[in-house]
Design brief:
Layout lengths: L5 E6 L2 E6 L10 H16 L5 E5 L4 E3 L4 H4 L4 H6 L17 E5 L2 E3 L1 H8 L2 E5 L3 E3 L13 H9 L1 H10 L3 E2 H7 L4 E3 L4 H13 L3 H16 L2 H15 L3 H11 L10
Parallel strand pairs: 2-3, 3-5, 4-6, 5-7, 6-8, 7-10
Antiparallel strand pairs: 1-2, 8-9
The structure holds 4-(N,N-dimethylamino)cinnamoyl-COA.
The site of 4-(N,N-dimethylamino)cinnamoyl-COA has 22 residues, from helix 2 and strand 6.
């Protein structure tokens, strides 16, 4: 029987998805992207889960779209099959926080997948690049759009046009990743961070995520207006009252995720 292209497990309120095509450096094919999307949506719908970690193995988070799968496609295959849009963007539909824990190669679509997550924790072994230009392709899963927003136009152009690889330190300096940790500590650090986040009130996390994402999609004035309404809405939440009351009573809050 063929092994599943993703492994799914939980640790407390954290859902963990491990990309599982190690022989192909987790190259992203349809079966993997379908399985990843299904796992993400299942965790998003599960009230027992508060945060999600996507990770790979020591050598690769993901070395990009599966070149062997794409090599024979023609325009009609990708247009009518709705390549990328059909099953690569599911992560953007997830309302809970998603952390990418990246060791080794995060290339092409792998780098774009990490960029689509909310927080990127990089092992010191992580390597980021958009090498599609070497194949006479272009980063087609949001790379040319999300990368300039993440690291600025000059550095994004450099990466996209030259296929230059960033090590973890450079990626951290450029703001492509949230933090860098020793490779051997990656999983523990990512799970600890996810557990901290998952311990907070879920509707507050969802409102924060939606508000931060709005910063990318709107003018500053619109974004501030959206944030203000989200903040007002917090006063309708039992957890917000519990959080403030617990502070005043010098005790730990007990959130109902309501
Ligand atoms: N696809 C398929 N197989 C891959 C792969 C990939 N992206 N990357 C590695 N593999 C496979 C290798 O073929 C090899 O398989 P076997 O020969 O053992 O059968 C195995 O994984 C181990 O790889 P290597 O032997 O090459 O390992 P090395 O350590 O020597 O080198 C490497 C590691 C990561 C430097 C090298 O494998 C490499 O350069 N891989 C390709 C990286 C790459 O170019 N990635 C970008 C892929 S393009 C679009 C939307 C999106 C995209 C494109 C279009 N449209 C909407 C049109 C996205 C494109 C991409 O992501």
């Amino acid at each position: 029987m063929q092994e599943s292209p993703v492994l799914v497990e939980t640790s407390g309120r954290v859902g963990i998805i491990t990309l599982n095509r190690p022989e192909q450096l987790n190259a992203l094919n349809d079966a993997l992207m379908d399985a990843l999307g299904n796992a993400l949506l299942a965790f998003d719908a599960d009230p027992a889960i508060g945060a999600i970690v996507i990770t790979g193995n020591d050598k690769a988070f993901a070395a990009g779209a599966d070149i062997a799968a794409m090599a024979d496609w023609d325009y009609m295959d990708v247009y009518q099959g709705d390549f990328i849009t059909r099953n690569w963007e599911t992560v953007r539909r997830v309302r809970k926080p998603v952390i990418a824990a990246v060791a080794g190669f995060a290339l092409g679509g792998g780098c774009e997948l990490a960029l689509s997550c909310d927080i990127v924790i990089a092992a010191d072994s992580a390597r980021f690049a958009l090498p599609e230009v070497k194949l006479a392709m272009l980063p087609g899963a949001g790379g040319t759009q999300r990368l300039p927003r993440a690291i600025g136009k000059a550095k994004a152009m450099d990466m996209c046009l030259s296929a230059r690889t960033l090590d973890a330190t450079e990626a951290d300096r450029y703001g492509l990743v949230s933090r860098v940790v020793p490779a051997e500590a990656l999983r523990k650090e990512a799970l600890n961070l996810a557990a901290v986040i998952a311990g907070y009130s879920l509707p507050a996390l969802m409102a924060i995520k939606e508000s931060v994402n709005r910063a990318y999609e709107s003018s500053l004035a619109e974004g501030i207006g959206f944030e203000r309404r989200q903040m007002h809405a917090r006063f309708a939440s039992a957890d917000a009252h519990e959080g403030m009351q617990a502070f005043l009573e010098k005790r730990k809050p007990v959130f109902q995720h309501r």
